[in-house]
Amino acid sequence: MTNRLSLLLLPALVLVAAARNAQAADYQQYGWIAELKKAGLELSSTKIKNSEEYRSSPNAELSGNSESLVKGIFDFSLINQQAAYKWDNNIFMEYGKTKVHQDDGPAIENETADKILLSTDYAMKVWRYWDADVGPFVQGAYQTEFDPNDDAPRTKIIRGMAGLKMFDGPVIKNLYAGLVGEYDFTYKHDKTRKWAYEIGIDATYPLREGISFNFTSYFRDYFEYSKYNPRDFDYEWNNKADMMVDIYNGLQMGPYIQYFRAKDRGSNKYGSSTIIGVQGSYGGSWGL
């Protein structure tokens, strides 16, 4: 536990320190804003450990094979930004597959990324710290997927979270800690209520004009369950770092690395996936 937390907190502390030297934005727009955070394509190679332990898991990131990957991502928010609060309504979708051609058999396809996440987040602006807003927040979300994974049913989770966050700074875009409650009805006859705590960070640091380093991570640790299901996670830990270069008018390209790790209650070993690749994306924001 201590080692996992330290790996998240170390880069977070580096970026928090960097925030002290960053410049704040010239202005902040109030009212409704449409923000396309990312519409992109990722090309990469994937290395997954202990995938045989997670073949029946509904989480696709642990059950695929180590192969090349093509993945699409769509991340869009409708935001109401005011002096006293920020209300962020988001849809996040990702889908990735590998295709392996065998010399002596038919092509094999593996699903290595599959998520649909609908969320709404309300955060109050109570304090200012390092040119960022700080305050309590509440969040509600529904998580599912495009296709069920192998012999597992389709993921269906309702999740709520409440806690404290720092957000919309020049470097720290989102730094939070919260209590999580989940209602997992993925398995029709084995519905589960779960409690966890979660910490996370989303940060961007400008290396120089037109080049930025981005880091996103969260750690969710479950501590109470309404019943035993061997496929429920004990914890999950997701990290992504990239270096993006501005190409033209919102178009960016650059390398990235992503690491996902989790352990479920029925396995003796954790499962993990490491992805290294190149991504191209487009993003922008518009006042409504």
If you had to describe this structure to a student in words, what would you say it looks like?
This protein is mainly beta and 288 residues long. A 12-stranded antiparallel beta barrel has the order 1-2-3-4-6-7-8-9-10-11-12-13. The protein has a single domain (2-287), classed as Beta Barrel (Outer membrane phospholipase (ompla), Chain C). The chain contains 1 helix and 13 strands, in the order H-E-E-E-E-E-E-E-E-E-E-E-E-E. The protein is globular, with a radius of gyration of 19 Å. The longest helix has 18 residues, at 2-19. The chain has one helix spanning 2-19; strands at residues 31-49, 68-81, 85-100, 108-124, 127-129, 132-144, 157-167, 172-184, 192-208, 211-225, 233-248, 251-264, 271-287.
What's the layout of helices and strands?
Blueprint: H1 2-19, E1 31-49, E2 68-81, E3 85-100, E4 108-124, E5 127-129, E6 132-144, E7 157-167, E8 172-184, E9 192-208, E10 211-225, E11 233-248, E12 251-264, E13 271-287
Antiparallel strand pairs: 1-2, 1-13, 2-3, 3-4, 4-6, 5-6, 6-7, 7-8, 8-9, 9-10, 10-11, 11-12, 12-13
Count structural domains. Answer: 1
- Second CATH tier, the architecture: Beta Barrel
Average pLDDT number: 84
Unreliable runs: 10-27
What is the gyration radius calculated from CA atoms? 19 Å
Structural class: mainly beta
Strand content: over 45%
Main sheet makeup:
12 strands, antiparallel, barrel
Approximate shape: globular
CATH first level: which class?
A: Mainly Beta
